[in-house]
Amino acid sequence: MNIHEYQAKAMLHEFGVPISRGVPVLKPEDADAAAKQLPGPIWVVKSQIHAGGRGKGKFKEASAGDKGGVRIAKSVAEVDEFAKQMLGATLVTVQTGPHGKQVNRLYIEEGSDIDKEFYLSILVNRETSEISFVVSTEGGVNIEDVAHSTPEKIVSFSVDPATGIMPHHGRTVAEALKLKGDLAKQAEKLTGQLYAAFAAKDMAMLEINPLVVTKQGQLRVLDAKVSFDSNALYRHPDVVALRDESEEDAKEIEASKYDLNYVALDGTIGCMVNGAGLAMATMDIIKLYGMEPANFLDVGGGASAEKVAAAFKIITADPNVRGILVNIFGGIMKCDVIAEGVVAAVKQVGLKVPLVVRLEGTNVEQGKKIIRDSGLNVVPADNLDDAAQKIVKAVKGG
């Protein structure tokens, strides 16, 4: 789960992290009052979407101007003008794709007198089961570009969960950023504060780009991107309350209600599979035969007929889907349960695209009989390779 920049900063501030003052704005008419709460004479008007590259992004609407999703205002009147242009417009960045995202929230922030920009992120290292820091003097740019062109400017280290954060970790950050004296002490303190927030809130990633030194000699978090471990949200109702469903795919939201693992993709063949590994293999073989999957959908090992029906409805709700492949290997999951769910869903929503079903494993003959006796126009498949070839052929009009 992701949250907006202003929400992330408010959360970090609870742990003592230094941030700039700012006010979130949801309606253009509120921008004037928000700006007047801040000292000026410079304000920063920031689009709030769940995507990076906002500053270099472009709005689709001509009325929104071509100054990107992060703008510097030199008067309250200019803040007001930018808010009217940006709210409700669609911002396209390198991370949104060509369709872009509609800007429904802004963050009006006081300007900062920047001397230096750094990069700092914290994430879970899946290989070592530790929390890791990534630090660089090259802030304000894509860290991927730094890693490619000047990897020696990136310093990373992990924190042993048995000890937690220690003073030497803070000194490592200060040394990596080439900070001395009071700024080094600030970096050491900030390291502990960020680690505490990351661990306490079960974050999956915390990215600060840039972390700045102001000309007044203060370290400050100028931007923050935070995502959380969805499996831990049950113990953080305060975090769940920050969820902005308008930033998420409606199909993924519906899938989460049924505890389905669903990710929307850009292809045309819908997939319903049980097991993440089998789902990945299914998507790979669809690509092997020249087409693209429309989704990743793992119904899990013990899904009910109701859950399967919900999954089928979610797939068919995607207007890009031109064919569906159901690929089930029954272990705990029984093939007859899958068949009942598919038949129930098709009878409710109809079937307007080709459907190929491959069943194998527990109760496979009962499952095949249920589909055979349903009267549905379903193409059976003997194995995964056969299923992939049949659905690709059907979608291509064969």
TrEMBL record:
- Residues bound to substrate are 274, 331-333
Query: Which Pfam family, any one of them, does this sequence belong to?
Result: ATP-grasp_2
Instruction: Report the co-factor binding details.
Output: Binds 1 Mg(2+) ion per subunit.
> Any keyword Magnesium?
yes
What are the names of the required cofactors? Mg(2+)
Give the reactions, separated by semicolons, that this protein catalyses: succinate + ATP + CoA = succinyl-CoA + ADP + phosphate; GTP + succinate + CoA = succinyl-CoA + GDP + phosphate
Q: Keywords assigned by UniProt?
A: ATP-binding, Ligase, Magnesium, Metal-binding, Nucleotide-binding, Tricarboxylic acid cycle
Q: Name one GO molecular function term.
A: succinate-CoA ligase (ADP-forming) activity
Query: Where is Mg(2+) bound in this sequence?
Result: 209, 223
Which parts of the sequence bind ATP?
Answer: 46, 53-55, 109, 112, 117
**EC number per UniProt:** 6.2.1.5
Function recorded in the entry: Succinyl-CoA synthetase functions in the citric acid cycle (TCA), coupling the hydrolysis of succinyl-CoA to the synthesis of either ATP or GTP and thus represents the only step of substrate-level phosphorylation in the TCA. The beta subunit provides nucleotide specificity of the enzyme and binds the substrate succinate, while the binding sites for coenzyme A and phosphate are found in the alpha subunit.
Describe the subunit structure: Heterotetramer of two alpha and two beta subunits.
The identity of this protein, by name, is: Succinate--CoA ligase [ADP-forming] subunit beta
